[in-house]
Structures are given as structure tokens and as C-alpha cells.
Amino acid sequence: MKKILSVLLSALLCLCFCITAYASDGEEEQEPADASTPRLMVTAYEAENGSVTPGESTAVKIKFKNQSQSKAVKNIKLAINDESGDIRPDGMGTQYVKSIKAGGTYTWELNLTASAAAQPGEHQLSVSCEYEDEYYNSYSAGDIIRLSVHQTVSLDYDGARLPVKVTQGDTVTVLVNLMNTGKTDLRNCRLAYEVEGLNAGGIVFAGEIPAGESTEAGANFQVSSEMLGETGGTVSIIYEDAYGEEYTKTETLSTTIVEKPEIISEEPEEEKKNPQWWAFLAVGAAAGGAAGAGIYAAITSSKARREDELRL
Question: What's the pTM value of the predicted model, to 2 decimals?
């Protein structure tokens, strides 16, 4: 009997052990799913040449990173949009990505074009992401990137030349007409002259020229009194765009310095015709005096004769 009870007890203990082990295995299989949210974010971006130029297609790279260290993301849709409409993607502006592993990255390469009327300066573009995790949970995210629009810079000018001849010691004025033919304002416009024998007195400032407008910049040159003959040099037209980038145009100048003529005093034209007018005047006066004396003598002689006749 004791043996039977011992066997039954051993069997009961084995059964309890098996039930406990089975329950433990069941608990491990029933671990809850990972409920964390995988974050897909923009971590870097760059535009070819650093900006977008109107009328030109510009390559842009946008880097995304799956910040989750445990979950992959998949079935991803990327999109980009500029609410102002000044910058548009070449195409639909969307991209499909199959998956990005946990901690992985993806770089979206696309082309953007700015409209001809796009305002120069920084533009904000929104980048959106739609994706799922491995349990088919849906997520969405968005980021902002900033791209600069550089409008075309263009400056035309005329009048940047010297007279064919200048005279020693004279002051010569040169007027240059500057025309902003681009779509962005020009700033700190100035002219720097370097001409041997001619001193412009330093830099000539023209200031700011709004897009589509023009201005005139004048320089007064003092011509050297110690130099003669042909001379030349340059004028540099320097200006900046709205971002402080500097541009320079250089024009060659030339002229000839001639000797200042001597000043010779000339007699009036009437004096040239009658150079001895004073002699004629003297002769006339003398002749008039003699004629007057003769007339007086004749009158006195006639009177004396009449008195003599009366006495007789």
C-alpha cells in the first residue's frame, strides 16, 4: 500500500511540475507587442550651389532617419510642398519608399525649380511622411526645410569713357549711367577709377539701385599739369546683391593729355584797323586851331579897314 501511495505521489508531483512549466511557456508567448512610436524625421538637406535659381532646375537632397532602435518602418510616402507656389518640384513632388530599418536612413533626391517671379530670399517648404510599422499601425510626420532663392543679378552701363583729349590742369567730368536689368536690388554700387595723370578724388558711390531702375554716377577728374601725351587706366564698377555677394565689372579707359595754350592779350578789332588814332586826333585838333586863328585874324583886319575909311 505504501508503495502504491509513493508512486501516486511521485506521479502527482510530476504532473504539477509539467503544468507549471507549460504555464510558464504560455506566459512567454503572451508578451505584449512593442507599442512605441517610430519617428521618421528629416536630419539634413542641401541644394546644389546652395540656392534655387529661377528658371533653372536645381538638385536637392533630403535625408530621413528612422529614429526607432527597435522598429522598422515601411510602406512610406514622402511629399514636399511650397505654400507660396514660388518653388515647384519637377514632377509630382512625391516619393514611395518600401522600408527603412530601425536606426536606418534614406536620402530623397529630387529637382526643384523656382518661378521667374519668385521673391528672392529664404522660402519654407513643408516635407511630410506617411508610414507604417511592422504591426501595420499608421503614422504621419512633418518637417520644415528652408531654401534660398537667388534671383538673376544683371547690371548694364554706358558712359564709362574719357574724352579723346583733356587739357593740363583742367577739371573733366565723366558721367556713367548704371542700369539694374536684373530682378533683385543692387546695393553698395560704386566706381573705382585708376587712370595715370587723372585724379578722381577716390571712390565714387552710386548707392542702391532697385530692380528695373537706373542711376547716374559722376566723377570729376583733375588733370595733371605735369604730364603730356597718351595715358590710360581702368574703371571698376562694383556692386552687391541682396545676400552681400560682390560682383565687379572692369572697363578700360584711355585719353590724351594736351598742353594748356598760352593766353595772349589781343587789341580790340577797331584798334587794329586804326592803330594810330591818337595821331589823327592830334592832327585834327591842330588843324582846327589853325583854322580858328585864321578866321579871327581876317575878321580883325576887315574891321580895321572900315574904321580907316570912315576917318577919311
Answer: 0.57
For residues 214 and 152, what is the distance between their CA atoms, to the nearest angstrom? 17
Residues of the chain short of pLDDT 50, as ranges, are 26-27, 277-278, 280-281, 283, 285, 290, 295, 299, 312
Q: Whole-angstrom Cα distance, residue 251 to residue 237? A: 8
Q: Which grid coordinates belong to 255?
A: 585719353
The strand pairing partners of 167, in sequence order, are: 258
Compute the half-sphere exposure of residue 3: CA atoms within 13 Å on the CB side of its CA.
Answer: 0
How far is Cα 46 from Cα 164, in angstroms, rounded to an integer? Answer: 53
- Cα-based distances in Å from 303 to 24, 289, 290, 311, 312: 184, 22, 21, 13, 15
DSSP H or E segment with residue 264: none
Q: Which three cell numbers stand for residue 71?
A: 522598429
Reference 184, options 47, 48, 51; nearest CA is 51
Looking at residue 220, its pLDDT comes to: 92
DSSP run (H or E) holding 137: none
H or E element in which residue 199 lies:
strand 198-199
Beta-strand relationship, 165-167 and 246-258: parallel
The amino acid at residue 93 is: G
What is the C-alpha separation between 56 and 115, in angstroms, rounded?
9
Query: Is residue 94 packed enough to be buried (19+ CB in 10 Å), middle (13-18) or exposed (0-12)?
Result: middle
Task: Report which secondary-structure segment, H or E, holds 267.
Answer: none
Instruction: Return the H-helix or E-strand segment holding 246.
Output: strand 246-258
Sheet with 87-89: strands ordered across:
40-47, 57-66, 105-114, 87-89
The rounded distance, in Å, linking the Cα atoms of 184 and 218 is: 24
Per-residue pLDDT of 182-233, as tens digits, reads: 888 899 999 999 999 999 888 999 999 998 899 999 999 999 998 999 999 9
Question: To 10 degrees, the CA torsion angle through 176, 181, 187, 189?
Answer: -20
